[in-house]
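Researcher: Before we compare anything, I want clean individual predictions. No alignment, no superposition, just each chain on its own. First chain goes here; please echo the sequence and then give the structure tokens.
Model: Echoing the first chain and its structure:
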Amino acid sequence: MEPIKLGVLGLGKMGRHHLRCAGLASGLELAAAGDIDAGRAEGVPQGVPFTTDLDEMLARVDGVIVAIPTEAHARVGRRILDAGKHLLLEKPFAVTADECDDLEAAAERGGCVLRIGHVERMNGAYRRVRERIRTPRFIEGHRLAGFDPRGTDVDVVLDLMIHDLDLVLDLHRCEPVRVDAVGVSVLTDRIDIANARLEFPGGELVNLTASRVSREPVRKLRIFQEDAYLSLDLQKQRVEIFGRSGAGPMGIHHERVDAPDGHNPLVEELQGFAAAIRGEESAIATAEDGRRAVVLAARIRESMERRATRFAESAGGAPWQAAPS
């Protein structure tokens, strides 16, 4: 079986991770690396051609992994798809739903595979317990990170919370009927800390917090359902499960589930992309999955804007800032 030839476009922090993990993945070949900054050629694996010219990369590959600022996803992604090349876009899919639709249409016209890099779907903890999660009644998520200028072309909702929005939508498979959110700018002119409360059609509730100005990194998801409580530490790829033991009404069973040794979510994602190109089943997020997360992120920002307006009207000015459109 011939390996799928892939290129990595954008050699910032995330692009470097893709370069490293492509060398560990099976079923694909790292055939090119590119960035508009020629200085980023340093560190590209020996034998892998580097280019600042996208057309030159496209001539060498079957598909492209794009890890560039979100605001450029629509423009650059369209060029790749119009050239008939498969595309894996780092999350978020795009800035707006219209941009998502345009890229989906381009992929369909060209017969190209289009996937979105929501890598937490491939997290070993999440993969191990996904089938055990049934109709969650309440989900609480915290995703906290130290400040990194890398993601500040978008607000924290598209930068960090988008990961948990994708997981929540994967678990519920429907859209929330109510969204209430607040956000605050701290170090940038965009929202740096956000909290969103979502209500789903059956009354299920989700409460998510994201911050990119925190001291310690946290990536946790707590899920409460009728028969169990699951605490997922996505950073450690570990799950703690508490459920009924069957030994009377107060009996509690505790179980710890860890990811398999050596499990690398990004390697799994790249292998899944190669599998999708070959027409095989793949667990990585589809374009429709990515679009759902972008649409929900927009609803969260709209809720922030409404709350900011109400606060300003009642207080004569507000510290809460709405994310720029």
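Researcher: Okay. Second chain, same rules.
Model: Second chain and its structure:
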Amino acid sequence: MEYRANFILWLLVEIAFVAVQVGMVSVYFNFTDNIAGWTKPQVFLLIGIFRVIEGIFHMFFFQNLLNFPENISTGNMDLFFTRPVNSLFLSSSRYHSLDEFGTFLVGIALVWYSLIQLQFSFSLLLLFELFVLFFFGLLTLYSIILIFSSLSFFFTRMTALHSVYDVITKALRIPINIITKDSFIGNSLLFPLLIVATLPSQILLGYVTPIFITLEIIGSLAIFMVAHKFFYFALRHYSSASS
């Protein structure tokens, strides 16, 4: 943030990216009031929830996880494993990108606007529910990308990691049930993606019973445990480039 012009520029760029997506969604709803059971304010709520999660992820984890392949091939990963700090924590959160704050900011604004349009009554309970859904959505996104990043320990070059991330995040910007058509098999296969933003939106909107917040929490923790175990399993296959 010491380079203020650069920080402000990226802030505006991130805001513009979200504005373009919102504009595209608005165009779709010029021709219909409902897409697969979702109205425009409801889709805006989903986009807002995802952008809040994505903004936090980009600020604190994105750069670190997506740099796994380079750090492994250059031997820089040794730095994370020789310090008296948890290896996963240090390797996935050492560098921060605060210029991604714009995504988070617009996400908050979009969630706030959507809740007003949907005539929600603001309360401490609603804010707490939002915080819980944001946290576990973020934990799920972190876990999904950690699993793909950990594959870098097995392959010499993971050049497709950025492309994998782009595909995942593009899918998360729309209701997943549009892709799965609410089929049991489809929802099961895409369950990790479903609980990032779609299920939290459905919980808030009352599409599903409140008990589904338990499913959100248990599912998110389960995926994190799998990612955590897989990271340390993959770590056994790490051969330092400097050794």
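Researcher: What stands out in the second chain?
Model: The first helix runs from residue 4 to 28. Additionally, Residues 4-235 form one domain.
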